[in-house]
Specification:
The structure holds 2 protein chains of 2 kinds. Chain A is mainly beta. Helices cover about 10% and strands about 30% of the residues of chain A. The longest helix of chain A has 12 residues. Chain B has a 16-stranded parallel sheet that branches. In chain B, a hairpin with a 6-residue loop joins strand 7 and strand 8. Classes of the chains: A mainly beta, B alpha/beta. The interface between A and B is large, with 83 and 109 residues.
């Protein structure tokens, strides 16, 4: 009896008593799993994401409207007109610069060299406005320079 | 009687000692096993931690790289580019995703079965990503070579475009290659970033990197040296109708400066604030980086609007002026003059225009003329009214441009320049002088005004519709500012990201 007590005492003192529901650590076990451990919650939404415009948008809407589309028109009598969404928003006089015609205004600078029309927005990249039917260009789009 | 006591049995003690020794050995063996297990567990834990930190480090490097090149990774997701770069598919493994670790994606490179992947190690996947154009500089950018050259730590990293989400799903009509109409919306990219020590085992961290496109609405209100706003500011599209606070106001008021800016801490800018200078946060000016925000992304003001300050920010400033501007700056004194009081005033050059008290005068545009007025001195008496009649050409409204070297008294108000019946961009005023200009009164104003040489102060209780750029700009009035987005051009500028649902595993 005493021997049994001594053995039990040893086991308790050495911490070798089995405990219910204990688990061994497996090296295949998920270490950390969960949501947003490294999430950054900085604000990302800016303004109204459904805004008209976008990337000087070349849009053909179901109703045939020209929402967001930016085009340039050479009137042929000395003016460049900038259209947005089909509406003229600025009209500037063209001046001859070398072999090109240039007009500058609040929105930006229009440069017409032969069939090539460029719209340089103030503080932003240049946009190419492909030649369209008549004297109105197609929708202007960001110029992609070769890699 | 014989003594029947038994002698003590000496071997009994020996047996006890043996038993105790055996017990001791068992205990020692158990402790050794426990110590061994603990050592192995500790070692495994250290190994896992090291693997985790290395993969986490690489994941963080990858997210930083994507953020650093955000303006170079935006252009492909615009409405007029997306379907020329990508195809939508069912969730499938791309042909270029041939490693042991594979991910199904819903986006493929246009005309191929390749998933859109950036990888810094070929064994984790073959990279495939369309060439891009930086939306700020216009410079071409190759994401594949850029990512491979990046320093991303000690782990293999792959960035996979798993899906995109249309900003406005109702305006995504499908792939135009299949006959659908081009989309009238842009697309937010959804990437998954995987950082792993090996494709077969070890540490592995992955998370979703969700993009949100950022648009540049121009700069509606810009003060080159300083911009201080003590009035609420929102925006609207005059092409869609007159401003109505209840139905069509928008949170795209664009404000900017190349110097010091301040927004009164009791007011709100519903839109953006950008300056290459500094933000003044001394009372009564608020800190736009604190909550609740003073620059708000929406009208609930639960999210901060975009705020950028410092040399790295790009801000649209003044335009490049035409020969008219330059000519008139130096020649206005010698040009023909007409002094008119009242009536219709045709476009042309004027040394002075005087509109007397209680006199109504009218400027008009037409296709037959320049629709541009050059005025050395515009003298608007009290109660003088100058109206603007917008002519049409093939149904198109023709904006009026007005160059003014000086306003008599260096001030005007909304009862004197009356453009409210028109769109703000129907009247574009260029103020050439350097005399400080005050715009005051109780009536609303509607125009785009540019004054690159002068400090402009807008006071009074009238609202301001349109846009205003000046050398320094102070809004001190009591009404609101309403930037007319239709008078400017909106461009896709950037994409910002959130890292979500990060999981770490050890295999």
């Amino acid at each position: 009896m005493r021997t049994t007590i001594i053995i039990a005492l040893f086991l308790v003192l050495t911490g070798n008593v089995p405990v219910a529901n204990s688990q061994e650590v497996s090296q295949d076990e998920v270490i950390v799993a969960g949501d947003n451990i490294l999430s950054t919650e900085e604000t990302t939404m800016v303004g109204d994401p459904t805004s008209e415009g976008g990337d000087v948008a070349n849009i053909i809407n179901p109703d045939g409207s020209l929402e967001g589309k930016v085009q340039v028109k050479d009137t042929g009598d000395g003016f460049a007109e900038v259209y947005r969404s089909g509406q003229m928003v600025e009209r500037d006089e063209l001046m001859e610069v070398e072999d090109c015609k240039v007009a500058s205004g609040m929105i930006g600078r229009v440069r017409i060299c032969g069939d090539a029309t460029t719209l340089s927005l103030v503080g932003r990249p240049d946009f190419n406005c492909p030649k369209g039917a008549g004297n109105m260009t197609e929708a202007c789009a960001l110029i992609e320079t070769p890699l | 009687m014989a003594d029947v006591r038994k002698n003590r049995e000496p071997g009994y003690i020996l047996l006890g000692v043996v038993i105790l020794m055996a017990l001791g050995a068992v205990i020692i063996a158990g402790n050794l096993d426990l110590a061994s297990s603990n050592a192995m567990t500790t070692n495994g834990e250290i190994l896992r931690n090291q693997e985790f930190y290395r993969t986490e480090e690489s994941l963080n490097f990858a997210t930083s790289w994507l953020r650093s090149f955000s303006t170079s990774l935006a252009s492909a997701f615009s409405r007029n580019t997306f379907y020329s770069k990508f195809d939508r598919t069912a969730p499938t493994i791309g042909a270029n995703d041939t490693s042991l670790f594979q991910l199904p994606t819903r986006i493929k490179l246009q005309g191929t079965n390749n998933s859109v992947i950036l990888a810094n190690n070929a064994s984790v996947a073959a990279s495939a990503f369309p060439p891009m154009v930086d939306t700020v500089t216009g410079v071409a950018f190759n994401p594949v070579s850029g990512f491979q050259a990046a320093s991303l730590g000690q782990s293999m990293v792959r960035v996979t475009l798993v899906d995109v989400m249309a900003v406005d799903p109702t305006k995504d009509y499908g792939d135009p290659d299949t006959g659908a109409m081009p989309p009238a919306t842009d697309f937010n990219p959804v990437y998954r970033i995987d950082s792993m020590r090996s494709t077969t085992g070890g540490g592995h961290v992955f998370g979703y990197f969700i993009g949100s496109l950022v648009f540049n609405y121009g700069v509606g209100f810009y003060g080159q040296d300083a911009l201080y706003i003590s009035q609420d500011c929102d925006s609207y599209l005059s092409n869609s109708g007159a401003y109505d606070a209840a139905t069509n106001r928008r949170a795209n008021c664009a404000t900017g400066s190349s110097g010091s800016v301040g927004i009164k801490n009791t007011e709100k800018v519903f839109g953006t604030l950008r300056t290459t200078g500094t933000v003044n946060t001394s009372n009564p000016w608020g800190d736009p980086n604190q909550m609740p925000p003073i620059v708000c992304a929406d009208f609930n003001c639960t999210k901060k609007g975009q705020v950028c300050s410092g040399a790295q920010c790009t801000v649209s400033g003044f335009g490049n002026y035409s020969k008219d501007w330059l000519y008139y700056q130096t020649n206005y004194g010698g040009t023909p003059l007409q002094d008119l009081d009242g009536g219709n005033i045709p476009p042309g050059y004027y040394s002075q225009i005087t509109v007397g008290p209680n006199v109504e005068a009218r400027f008009a545009s037409s296709a037959a003329t320049t629709s541009t007025y050059y005025i050395a001195n515009l003298n608007l008496a009290n109660n003088a009214k100058l109206y603007f009649d917008i002519g049409l050409n093939a149904g198109q409204r023709i904006p009026i441009k007005m160059y003014v070297n000086r306003f008599t008294g260096d001030k005007f108000n909304g009862n004197q320049l009356i453009n409210l019946a028109n769109k703000p961009y129907d009247l574009r005023v260029f103020y050439l002088g350097s005399w400080p200009l005050t715009i005051d009164g109780t009536a609303d104003l509607s125009m785009f005004l540019e004054a690159p040489n002068a400090t402009v102060t807008v006071s009074g209780s009238g609202g301001y519709f349109g846009g205003l750029k000046s050398k320094a700009l102070y809004f001190t009035g009591s009404s609101s500012l309403h930037y007319d987005e239709s008078g400017d051009v909106t461009t896709l500028a950037d994409v910002s990201y959130k890292l979500r649902d990060v999981v770490a595993r050890y295999r």
